[in-house]
Amino acid sequence: MGESRSNNAGLDCFKQHGIDRPVNVEQLIKCKMQDNLEFLQWSKRYWDQYYPGGDYDANARRLGSGAPAPAAAAPRASAGAARRGTTPTIGGARAGKSAAGGAGNAALQQENNTLKETVQGLERERDFYFSKLRDIELLVQQACEEDPEIERQEDGLIKHIQSILYSTEDGFEIPAEAEVDDQETF
């Protein structure tokens, strides 16, 4: 009985707003992509055509306070033309959050900011040490160009430096040269 009551409520809502489009719920329930896509496209077109503009406060609508009066908004023809293809957004990312959700959200944002600072510090440290290693590598290359005999010495300082510079750890793979492929893979 509750199911037929909710279906009638949906039909009453459509009638109240003057929507004559039949909605075949059985087709939508089967989750066939084409049927659902057509319904979503129709919903989007209806929204773009009749939404009066301004910020949309979903929580206030659910509580029954309603949306801004259409008379206060711009004329529908010009508003629909200007807004076509856009989706309305809430004014600010935090608008409409509950107190409990806001506290959890604030904690997550603080943790996220802490992690971002940590990553920035690690990136600075990585860049610092990479530049030092690069400078050493350039000095070794310059010394080898000036005196090729230095590189041929088996127990020489240059060989030891090069072995340290170019050594790898277990599980580390040297990235191959990036080959750009124009084809996308999914």
Automatic annotation (TrEMBL):
Residue ranges of domain EB1 C-terminal in the record: 97-174
Top-level division of the source organism's lineage: Eukaryota
Protein localization: Cytoplasm, Cytoskeleton
Keyword Cytoplasm applies: yes
Gene3D superfamilies: 1.20.5.1430, Calponin-like domain (1.10.418.10)
PROSITE patterns: EB1_C
InterPro entries: CH_dom_sf, EB1_C, EB1_C_sf, MAPRE
UniProt keyword list: Cytoplasm, Cytoskeleton, Microtubule
Recorded GO MF terms: microtubule binding
Major subcellular location class: cytoplasm
Compositional bias segments (type: Low complexity): 66-98
Stretch forming the signal peptide: none
Pfam families registered for this protein in UniProt: EB1 (PF03271)
GO cellular component, one term: microtubule
Chain intervals for the UniProt region annotation (Disordered): 66-105
Protein's recorded name: Putative Microtubule integrity protein mal3
